[in-house]
C-alpha cells in the first residue's frame, strides 16, 4: 500500500512509502484485540491484597456462650465473618494466579489488527526522520506533536536509538514513545494517533507480517512439494492387524508368528499353511475380516 510521507514539521513530501498490506490492510478482529488487552492487563496484576479467613484470624477458639438458655443467637466463634473483627468470607487472596497466555499467532494477529485500525481511521502518520537536538527538547517535541497530531494523544514508534525523542516526551502528558520491538496491542490502542518513523517499517514487517504466500492465497511450490510427499506417506501407510478389526489376542498371536501386516496374513491363509495358536473359529473370524471365502 502506498502511503504519504511527512517530515517533522507536518509537511507532506513528494515521495510515498510502501506499507506492508498484511500488517496495515489486515482484517480488523476486534474480539481478538479485546482478548489481547485482557491478557496484557491480567499479567500486570501482582496479587498483593490478602485477607484472613475465620480460621486465620487470631482468637475465637472458644465458644462465646453456651448454645441454649441465654436467649441470645447461637455462635461458635467470635471470629465468624458476621462479627466485628472476624475473618473475611470471600476476600482477596495473595496466592491467586492471574497470569494468562496468548499464543504467538494470536498476538501477531491482534497487533496487525491494531495497525490496520489506525490506517483505516486515517490517524496514522509516517515520518521520514526526527531530529531533536540542543536545548528545550520538550518544547521541540511539543511543537512537532501539535503539527502532526493536533493535540491528540499520540504514540511515536522508533528504532530505539532516538534518545532525545524519548527524553523530550517524558514530561508531556499525551505523548508516548516506544521502540518498535516493545509495541503491543494494549499500548497501541491506548493512543488516538500513531506516528511511525520510516526506518522501522521493515522491522514491523519482519515482526508481524503474515507468512509469504503466492497469488490467490495458494501455497508456494516448495510447500506444494511437501504436501504431496505427506499425502504419499499417508496413502502408502499400510494398516496394522489391530486396525483392520482383529481382536488383540489374535493380533498378538499372529505377530509372534512373524505376521505383521494384513497382506502377509492373507498370503499365509491362501497358501494353506497352519498358523500355530489359531484355531478353526479364529480362522473363520480372520476370513470374515479379510473377506476371504
Structural features, described:
- A hairpin with a 5-residue loop joins strand 1 (2-6) and strand 2 (12-18).
- It is built from 11 helices and 6 strands.
- It has 3 domains: 2-29 and 103-208, Ribosomal Protein L4, Chain: A (3-Layer(aba) Sandwich); 46-97, no CATH class; 248-290, no CATH class.
- The chain has 293 residues and is of the alpha/beta class.
- The two termini are 69 Å apart.
- A 6-stranded mixed β-sheet has the order 2-1-3-6-4-5.
- The mean pLDDT is 86.
What's the CATH topology label of the largest domain? Ribosomal Protein L4, Chain: A
Q: Identify the strand order in the major beta sheet.
A: 2-1-3-6-4-5
Strand content: 5-15%
The largest β sheet comes out as: 6 strands, mixed
Give me the secondary-structure category.
Answer: alpha/beta
Query: What's the number of helices?
Result: 11
Rounded Rg: 35 Å
Q: Order of SSEs, N→C?
A: EEHHHEHEHEHEHHHHH
Spans where pLDDT lies below 50 across 5 or more residues: none
Number of strands: 6
- Spell out the CATH superfamily of the largest domain: Ribosomal protein L4/L1
Identify the overall geometry. Answer: flat
The CATH architecture classification of the largest domain is 3-Layer(aba) Sandwich
Number of domains: 3
CATH class annotation of the largest domain: Alpha Beta
> Fraction of residues in helices?
25-40%
First-to-last CA distance: 69 Å
